[in-house]
Design a protein that fits this description.
By secondary structure, the chain is an all-alpha fold. Helices cover 76% and strands 0% of the residues.
Length: 93
Amino acid sequence: MLTAEKCVADINDVLGNYGVIPYYDKGPFELMDIDSHASAIRTMTAAAAAEVLAQVLKFEHGEPFVRSVLISLDDWDQFDTMLDKNNDLADVY
């Protein structure tokens, strides 16, 4: 199961390998395997997915990652339900 801690660790790996500027300039889509994170989210309930992404959003560099995952999930049948669980996610999207 995907956790917020795993997502933050993956973000930290990218930041360590590429730096902050490329992370923000190129974005997580180019530097990370966002599709695997989105696939893992799709296996969760909407509430669990919202909780994980909300926790990642609290991380200093979490917003670009969360936005990228949300873009990958916008065709998920639980997408709107997930956004309804947390207004901050809707704002980032």
